[in-house]
Amino acid sequence: MFAIPTPYFASREIYTKQAGGSMKASWQPCRVIGVTKDDDGEPAYIVEYTHDGITYLGTESYVRRSERGNPL
Known about the structure:
Layout: E1 2-17, E2 23-37, E3 43-51, E4 54-60, E5 63-65
Antiparallel strand pairs: 1-2, 1-5, 2-3, 3-4
């Protein structure tokens, strides 16, 4: 794992289950704080995100970088 010198804001793709059993994709804000390798040896982003008022760390293989400035 490597920390990046300047963490940046991005969005990660999440899927939520709908009433009919289908899945809906949406983008959730996060902050990229480092990089690592996943189980297959591919690069992955270490992200910090908030859900229901709790902050979590996770890994994502794909993120979209936000526009410059603070999106909050």
